[in-house]
Amino acid sequence: MVLAVLLLLGGAAVLTAGAEAAIRGASRFAQAHRISPFVLGALLFGLDLESLGAALVAAGRGQTSIAAGEAFGTIVFLFSAAFGAALLVSRKPVPAPSLEMVLLPALALATGAMTLNDHVVTRLEGGGLIGIYLLYIAAVIWEGHTAQMKAEEIERESREGLRKLPPVVLLLVGLGLVYLGATVLVDGGIRILDRTSLAAGFVGAALIGALASLDEVLLEVIPVLRGMPELATGNLFGTVAAFATGVIGLAALVRPLEVDSAANSAFIAASILYTVVALAFLVRGRAGKAVGLIVLFVYALWLLLAARI
After folding, report:
1. Going from the N-terminus, what domains does the chain have, and what CATH number goes with each?
2. In terms of pTM, does the model score above 0.90?
3. How far apart are CA 243 and CA 184, in angstroms?
4. What is the rounded distance in angstroms from the CA atom of residue 91 to the CA atom of residue 7?
5. pLDDT, averaged in runs of 10, over the chain (309 residues)
6. 35, 91, 112, 182: least CB-packed within 10 angstroms?
7. Cα 238–chain centre separation
8. Is the Cβ–Cβ distance between 96 and 285 less than 8 Å?
9. For residue 111, which of 233, 237, 246 has the smallest C-alpha distance?
10. What is the Cα–Cα distance from 221 to 229, expressed in whole angstroms?
Protein backbone atom coordinates (compact mmCIF):
# COMPACT_ATOMS: atom_id res chain seq x y z
CA MET A 1 0.00 0.00 0.00
CA VAL A 2 2.88 2.38 0.81
CA LEU A 3 4.38 1.76 -2.63
CA ALA A 4 1.00 2.43 -4.24
CA VAL A 5 0.73 5.79 -2.46
CA LEU A 6 4.30 6.69 -3.43
CA LEU A 7 3.54 5.82 -7.05
CA LEU A 8 0.45 8.06 -6.97
CA LEU A 9 2.35 11.01 -5.52
CA GLY A 10 5.40 10.50 -7.71
CA GLY A 11 3.29 10.13 -10.82
CA ALA A 12 1.39 13.32 -10.03
CA ALA A 13 4.66 15.24 -9.59
CA VAL A 14 6.15 13.95 -12.85
CA LEU A 15 2.90 14.62 -14.70
CA THR A 16 2.78 18.24 -13.53
CA ALA A 17 6.43 18.90 -14.42
CA GLY A 18 6.02 17.25 -17.81
CA ALA A 19 2.86 19.14 -18.68
CA GLU A 20 4.39 22.49 -17.78
CA ALA A 21 7.50 21.74 -19.88
CA ALA A 22 5.36 20.59 -22.81
CA ILE A 23 3.24 23.73 -22.72
CA ARG A 24 6.27 26.00 -22.57
CA GLY A 25 8.00 24.12 -25.37
CA ALA A 26 4.91 24.22 -27.56
CA SER A 27 4.54 27.95 -26.98
CA ARG A 28 8.15 28.68 -27.92
CA PHE A 29 7.85 26.45 -30.98
CA ALA A 30 4.76 28.37 -32.04
CA GLN A 31 6.48 31.72 -31.60
CA ALA A 32 9.56 30.57 -33.50
CA HIS A 33 7.47 29.30 -36.42
CA ARG A 34 4.89 32.09 -36.32
CA ILE A 35 2.04 29.81 -35.26
CA SER A 36 -0.61 31.69 -33.33
CA PRO A 37 -0.35 31.02 -29.58
CA PHE A 38 -4.06 31.80 -29.48
CA VAL A 39 -4.85 28.35 -30.91
CA LEU A 40 -2.42 26.64 -28.52
CA GLY A 41 -4.06 28.39 -25.60
CA ALA A 42 -7.51 27.08 -26.53
CA LEU A 43 -6.25 23.51 -26.96
CA LEU A 44 -3.58 22.99 -24.31
CA PHE A 45 -5.09 24.72 -21.29
CA GLY A 46 -8.54 23.26 -21.80
CA LEU A 47 -7.29 19.73 -22.30
CA ASP A 48 -5.04 19.65 -19.18
CA LEU A 49 -2.30 17.40 -20.56
CA GLU A 50 -1.49 15.54 -17.37
CA SER A 51 -5.10 14.46 -16.78
CA LEU A 52 -5.51 13.61 -20.46
CA GLY A 53 -2.37 11.48 -20.32
CA ALA A 54 -3.58 9.60 -17.26
CA ALA A 55 -6.95 8.84 -18.89
CA LEU A 56 -5.39 7.58 -22.13
CA VAL A 57 -2.83 5.39 -20.33
CA ALA A 58 -5.56 3.89 -18.15
CA ALA A 59 -7.68 3.12 -21.23
CA GLY A 60 -4.70 1.61 -23.03
CA ARG A 61 -4.08 -0.72 -20.10
CA GLY A 62 -7.67 -1.92 -20.09
CA GLN A 63 -8.70 0.05 -16.98
CA THR A 64 -11.57 1.79 -18.73
CA SER A 65 -13.56 2.65 -15.60
CA ILE A 66 -10.44 4.27 -14.15
CA ALA A 67 -10.06 6.24 -17.39
CA ALA A 68 -13.67 7.46 -17.29
CA GLY A 69 -13.51 8.16 -13.57
CA GLU A 70 -10.29 10.12 -14.02
CA ALA A 71 -11.84 12.28 -16.73
CA PHE A 72 -14.97 13.08 -14.73
CA GLY A 73 -12.98 13.38 -11.50
CA THR A 74 -10.87 16.10 -13.14
CA ILE A 75 -14.03 18.17 -13.66
CA VAL A 76 -15.24 17.49 -10.12
CA PHE A 77 -11.91 18.45 -8.56
CA LEU A 78 -11.55 21.59 -10.66
CA PHE A 79 -15.06 22.87 -9.92
CA SER A 80 -14.87 22.07 -6.20
CA ALA A 81 -11.42 22.05 -4.62
CA ALA A 82 -9.69 24.32 -7.17
CA PHE A 83 -12.41 26.86 -7.95
CA GLY A 84 -13.79 26.69 -4.40
CA ALA A 85 -10.36 27.59 -3.03
CA ALA A 86 -10.08 30.46 -5.51
CA LEU A 87 -13.46 31.86 -4.43
CA LEU A 88 -12.59 31.61 -0.74
CA VAL A 89 -9.27 33.45 -1.06
CA SER A 90 -10.58 36.07 -3.47
CA ARG A 91 -11.11 39.53 -2.01
CA LYS A 92 -14.15 40.08 -4.19
CA PRO A 93 -16.56 37.90 -6.18
CA VAL A 94 -15.36 36.46 -9.48
CA PRO A 95 -17.30 38.02 -12.39
CA ALA A 96 -19.09 35.82 -14.89
CA PRO A 97 -17.73 35.24 -18.39
CA SER A 98 -19.98 35.77 -21.39
CA LEU A 99 -23.34 34.04 -21.52
CA GLU A 100 -22.21 31.81 -24.39
CA MET A 101 -19.10 30.61 -22.54
CA VAL A 102 -21.17 29.75 -19.45
CA LEU A 103 -23.84 27.82 -21.37
CA LEU A 104 -21.78 26.01 -24.05
CA PRO A 105 -20.37 23.35 -21.65
CA ALA A 106 -23.97 22.29 -20.94
CA LEU A 107 -24.05 20.88 -24.49
CA ALA A 108 -20.96 18.81 -23.73
CA LEU A 109 -22.48 17.46 -20.52
CA ALA A 110 -25.79 16.66 -22.23
CA THR A 111 -23.99 14.78 -24.99
CA GLY A 112 -21.88 12.93 -22.45
CA ALA A 113 -24.98 11.95 -20.48
CA MET A 114 -26.64 10.47 -23.56
CA THR A 115 -23.48 8.53 -24.41
CA LEU A 116 -23.19 7.11 -20.89
CA ASN A 117 -26.81 5.99 -20.77
CA ASP A 118 -25.84 2.34 -21.40
CA HIS A 119 -22.59 2.53 -19.36
CA VAL A 120 -20.54 1.93 -22.52
CA VAL A 121 -18.70 4.36 -24.82
CA THR A 122 -17.91 2.77 -28.19
CA ARG A 123 -15.28 3.97 -30.63
CA LEU A 124 -18.02 5.38 -32.86
CA GLU A 125 -19.49 7.31 -29.93
CA GLY A 126 -15.98 8.43 -29.01
CA GLY A 127 -15.54 9.92 -32.46
CA GLY A 128 -18.82 11.78 -32.07
CA LEU A 129 -17.73 13.18 -28.71
CA ILE A 130 -14.50 14.44 -30.24
CA GLY A 131 -16.54 16.14 -32.94
CA ILE A 132 -18.62 17.93 -30.30
CA TYR A 133 -15.43 19.11 -28.59
CA LEU A 134 -14.03 20.44 -31.86
CA LEU A 135 -17.22 22.47 -32.29
CA TYR A 136 -16.69 23.86 -28.80
CA ILE A 137 -13.11 24.83 -29.63
CA ALA A 138 -14.35 26.62 -32.77
CA ALA A 139 -16.86 28.53 -30.65
CA VAL A 140 -14.17 29.53 -28.13
CA ILE A 141 -11.88 30.71 -30.90
CA TRP A 142 -14.75 32.70 -32.38
CA GLU A 143 -15.42 34.25 -29.01
CA GLY A 144 -11.72 34.95 -28.74
CA HIS A 145 -11.55 36.52 -25.29
CA THR A 146 -11.14 33.43 -23.12
CA ALA A 147 -8.67 31.76 -25.45
CA GLN A 148 -6.62 34.95 -25.71
CA MET A 149 -6.33 35.20 -21.93
CA LYS A 150 -5.09 31.61 -21.77
CA ALA A 151 -2.61 32.22 -24.59
CA GLU A 152 -1.19 35.25 -22.82
CA GLU A 153 -0.59 33.16 -19.70
CA ILE A 154 1.13 30.45 -21.77
CA GLU A 155 3.30 33.06 -23.46
CA ARG A 156 4.25 34.58 -20.09
CA GLU A 157 5.18 31.17 -18.68
CA SER A 158 7.17 30.31 -21.77
CA ARG A 159 9.64 33.08 -20.89
CA GLU A 160 10.25 31.66 -17.40
CA GLY A 161 12.88 28.99 -16.71
CA LEU A 162 14.45 26.33 -18.92
CA ARG A 163 15.51 29.07 -21.35
CA LYS A 164 18.44 27.19 -22.86
CA LEU A 165 16.49 24.19 -24.16
CA PRO A 166 15.36 24.35 -27.82
CA PRO A 167 11.56 24.48 -28.14
CA VAL A 168 11.26 21.10 -29.87
CA VAL A 169 13.47 19.39 -27.27
CA LEU A 170 11.51 20.95 -24.42
CA LEU A 171 8.22 19.90 -26.01
CA LEU A 172 9.37 16.29 -26.55
CA VAL A 173 10.86 16.04 -23.05
CA GLY A 174 7.64 17.40 -21.57
CA LEU A 175 5.46 14.95 -23.49
CA GLY A 176 7.75 12.11 -22.45
CA LEU A 177 7.40 13.12 -18.81
CA VAL A 178 3.62 13.32 -19.24
CA TYR A 179 3.55 9.73 -20.49
CA LEU A 180 5.91 8.55 -17.74
CA GLY A 181 3.97 10.35 -15.04
CA ALA A 182 0.65 9.03 -16.34
CA THR A 183 2.01 5.47 -16.39
CA VAL A 184 3.29 5.72 -12.81
CA LEU A 185 0.05 7.33 -11.66
CA VAL A 186 -2.10 4.60 -13.22
CA ASP A 187 0.19 1.92 -11.76
CA GLY A 188 -0.41 3.38 -8.32
CA GLY A 189 -4.15 3.46 -8.93
CA ILE A 190 -4.20 -0.18 -10.04
CA ARG A 191 -2.23 -1.23 -6.96
CA ILE A 192 -4.71 0.52 -4.70
CA LEU A 193 -7.57 -1.05 -6.64
CA ASP A 194 -6.05 -4.52 -6.12
CA ARG A 195 -5.52 -3.96 -2.40
CA THR A 196 -8.85 -2.36 -1.48
CA SER A 197 -12.54 -2.87 -2.09
CA LEU A 198 -12.85 0.52 -3.81
CA ALA A 199 -14.54 0.65 -7.22
CA ALA A 200 -12.33 1.33 -10.24
CA GLY A 201 -14.31 4.43 -11.17
CA PHE A 202 -13.89 5.85 -7.67
CA VAL A 203 -10.11 5.28 -7.74
CA GLY A 204 -9.95 7.07 -11.08
CA ALA A 205 -12.18 9.97 -10.04
CA ALA A 206 -11.23 10.58 -6.41
CA LEU A 207 -7.54 9.64 -6.43
CA ILE A 208 -6.04 9.82 -9.93
CA GLY A 209 -8.31 12.63 -11.11
CA ALA A 210 -7.50 14.79 -8.09
CA LEU A 211 -3.75 14.14 -8.12
CA ALA A 212 -3.46 14.74 -11.85
CA SER A 213 -5.29 18.05 -11.41
CA LEU A 214 -3.36 19.46 -8.45
CA ASP A 215 -1.75 22.11 -10.61
CA GLU A 216 -5.24 23.31 -11.53
CA VAL A 217 -5.58 24.72 -8.02
CA LEU A 218 -2.80 27.18 -8.86
CA LEU A 219 -4.32 27.89 -12.29
CA GLU A 220 -7.54 28.91 -10.52
CA VAL A 221 -6.20 30.65 -7.40
CA ILE A 222 -3.31 32.66 -8.87
CA PRO A 223 -5.26 34.34 -11.71
CA VAL A 224 -8.00 35.36 -9.26
CA LEU A 225 -5.46 36.81 -6.83
CA ARG A 226 -3.69 38.64 -9.66
CA GLY A 227 -6.88 40.22 -10.92
CA MET A 228 -7.24 37.95 -13.97
CA PRO A 229 -10.46 36.04 -13.20
CA GLU A 230 -11.15 35.52 -16.92
CA LEU A 231 -8.21 33.10 -17.03
CA ALA A 232 -9.65 31.09 -14.13
CA THR A 233 -13.21 30.94 -15.49
CA GLY A 234 -11.96 30.18 -19.01
CA ASN A 235 -9.94 27.24 -17.71
CA LEU A 236 -12.93 26.16 -15.60
CA PHE A 237 -15.54 25.94 -18.35
CA GLY A 238 -13.07 24.82 -21.01
CA THR A 239 -12.18 21.79 -18.91
CA VAL A 240 -15.84 20.73 -18.67
CA ALA A 241 -16.15 20.59 -22.45
CA ALA A 242 -12.78 18.91 -22.89
CA PHE A 243 -13.25 16.11 -20.38
CA ALA A 244 -16.96 15.46 -20.90
CA THR A 245 -16.42 15.00 -24.64
CA GLY A 246 -12.92 15.19 -26.12
CA VAL A 247 -10.96 13.25 -23.49
CA ILE A 248 -13.63 10.56 -23.09
CA GLY A 249 -13.79 10.33 -26.89
CA LEU A 250 -10.03 9.90 -27.23
CA ALA A 251 -9.96 7.29 -24.46
CA ALA A 252 -12.78 5.38 -26.20
CA LEU A 253 -10.78 5.38 -29.44
CA VAL A 254 -7.90 3.77 -27.55
CA ARG A 255 -10.27 1.17 -26.08
CA PRO A 256 -14.08 1.17 -25.83
CA LEU A 257 -15.03 2.23 -22.32
CA GLU A 258 -17.06 0.22 -19.86
CA VAL A 259 -18.08 2.74 -17.22
CA ASP A 260 -18.95 1.51 -13.71
CA SER A 261 -21.41 3.13 -11.31
CA ALA A 262 -18.68 4.96 -9.40
CA ALA A 263 -17.46 6.69 -12.55
CA ASN A 264 -21.06 7.52 -13.42
CA SER A 265 -21.48 9.09 -9.99
CA ALA A 266 -18.48 11.29 -10.75
CA PHE A 267 -20.17 12.45 -13.95
CA ILE A 268 -23.34 13.28 -12.00
CA ALA A 269 -21.29 15.18 -9.40
CA ALA A 270 -19.53 17.09 -12.19
CA SER A 271 -22.88 18.03 -13.71
CA ILE A 272 -24.24 19.23 -10.35
CA LEU A 273 -21.14 21.32 -9.66
CA TYR A 274 -21.28 22.87 -13.12
CA THR A 275 -24.96 23.69 -12.59
CA VAL A 276 -24.27 25.39 -9.24
CA VAL A 277 -21.51 27.58 -10.66
CA ALA A 278 -23.34 28.31 -13.93
CA LEU A 279 -26.53 29.34 -12.09
CA ALA A 280 -24.55 31.68 -9.84
CA PHE A 281 -22.99 33.32 -12.88
CA LEU A 282 -26.28 33.50 -14.80
CA VAL A 283 -28.44 34.76 -11.93
CA ARG A 284 -26.03 37.01 -10.04
CA GLY A 285 -23.37 37.69 -12.67
CA ARG A 286 -20.66 36.62 -10.23
CA ALA A 287 -19.61 33.89 -7.81
CA GLY A 288 -18.37 34.54 -4.28
CA LYS A 289 -17.47 32.79 -1.05
CA ALA A 290 -20.95 31.31 -0.60
CA VAL A 291 -20.62 29.46 -3.91
CA GLY A 292 -17.13 28.35 -2.87
CA LEU A 293 -18.50 26.78 0.30
CA ILE A 294 -21.34 25.10 -1.60
CA VAL A 295 -19.08 23.44 -4.17
CA LEU A 296 -16.70 22.24 -1.46
CA PHE A 297 -19.65 20.76 0.43
CA VAL A 298 -20.87 18.97 -2.72
CA TYR A 299 -17.36 17.58 -3.23
CA ALA A 300 -17.16 16.25 0.31
CA LEU A 301 -20.64 14.75 0.05
CA TRP A 302 -19.79 13.05 -3.25
CA LEU A 303 -16.58 11.57 -1.80
CA LEU A 304 -18.54 10.16 1.13
CA LEU A 305 -21.26 8.63 -1.04
CA ALA A 306 -19.08 7.44 -3.92
CA ALA A 307 -16.68 5.59 -1.61
CA ARG A 308 -19.60 3.33 -0.60
CA ILE A 309 -20.62 2.39 -4.14
Report:
1. 2-306 (1.20.1420.30)
2. no
3. 21
4. 37
5. 56 56 53 51 60 81 84 88 90 89 91 91 94 89 56 48 56 60 57 58 53 60 72 83 92 92 88 96 94 93 76
6. 91
7. 9
8. yes
9. 246
10. 9
